[in-house]
Amino acid sequence: MYLLGIAKGAGRKPGLEKLFLSPNAQEIILPEDSNALHLLQRVRDEAHRFAITGHRQQRAKRQIHSVLENIEGVGAARRRELLRQFGGLQEVQCATVEELAKVPGISVVLAKRIYDALNRFNLPNLLTLLRIFLIPIFILAYYTSGALSYWLTTSIFVFACLTDWFDGYLARKLRQESRFGAFLDPVADKLIVVVALILLVQSYGTAILSIPAVIIISREIVISALRELMAQYGRGTKVAVAYVGKIKTFMQMSAIAVLQLVKLEDNNLVPKKNYTK
């Protein structure tokens, strides 16, 4: 039995291929206009296309099954029905809870579960995660010496606050609201606000700032505990964020940004410290 191998030539340019014939790996170079070379090129290209297409199909199939198989209540029959109704995983990810619930065998509860699982790391949630990842950078910028630190710290904080608005807007606009996002968004807000308040108290060290900071942080802890308590009783929606809460968050973040940027000691708004002995 003889084996024939084909290798691409210099620069992978068609027509410069080299043939190797077993058993002695004899090198054969055919002319560029050879019909035999053209036939071998077509066979090689078709083999590559078949292998690559098959690999992509298998990989896509594994991705689809791995995602849907991890969702409780979604068995093989429901997976097939979802893919048949929507045409693919990407279409299933873009579907709303109402559209998912229209699929035979998918209840509203299961539709919400599928939606949350497929949209856990969508764009709104990634913006919320970015707000959390900005906290260490915010702290490092706060301890940077020089006047630049005020502008740098405020810029990072304002950018983080803008992501708080954008993630909610995009979630509604793109219909990508999820339970994970509803849980993560207030957590990110509380983290960055509490960190900012702690740093401000350390900087100014006066009752004018310390007392409001203690009240705000205590309030955040109480609200979080209340949400957890109501969730245990199945009434988590009873503590949903109201419009007045959004106004509070906006005014709170705006005040923190101003306090970061302005040296209040220079404006005689807080008692000046006497550092001389």
Automatic annotation (TrEMBL):
PROSITE patterns hit by this protein: CDP_ALCOHOL_P_TRANSF
Assigned EC number: 2.7.8.41
Bilayer topology term: Multi-pass membrane protein
Pfam families per UniProt: CDP-OH_P_transf (PF01066), HHH_5 (PF14520), UvrC_RNaseH_dom (PF08459)
GO terms for MF: cardiolipin synthase (CMP-forming); CDP-diacylglycerol-glycerol-3-phosphate 3-phosphatidyltransferase activity; excinuclease ABC activity
Entry's transmembrane regions: 123-143, 149-170, 191-217
Keywords of the record: Lipid biosynthesis, Lipid metabolism, Membrane, Phospholipid biosynthesis, Phospholipid metabolism, Transferase, Transmembrane, Transmembrane helix
Keyword Lipid biosynthesis tagged: yes
Enzyme class: transferase
GO-annotated biological processes: glycerophospholipid biosynthetic process
GO CC, alphabetical: membrane
Domain of life of the organism encoding this protein: Eukaryota
Localization, UniProt: Membrane
Domain UvrC family homology region profile: 3-52
Catalytic activity, reaction form: a CDP-1,2-diacyl-sn-glycerol + a 1,2-diacyl-sn-glycero-3-phospho-(1'-sn-glycerol) = a cardiolipin + CMP + H(+)
Family to which the UniProt record says this protein belongs: Belongs to the CDP-alcohol phosphatidyltransferase class-I family.
Protein name: cardiolipin synthase (CMP-forming)
Species assigned in the record: Oppiella nova
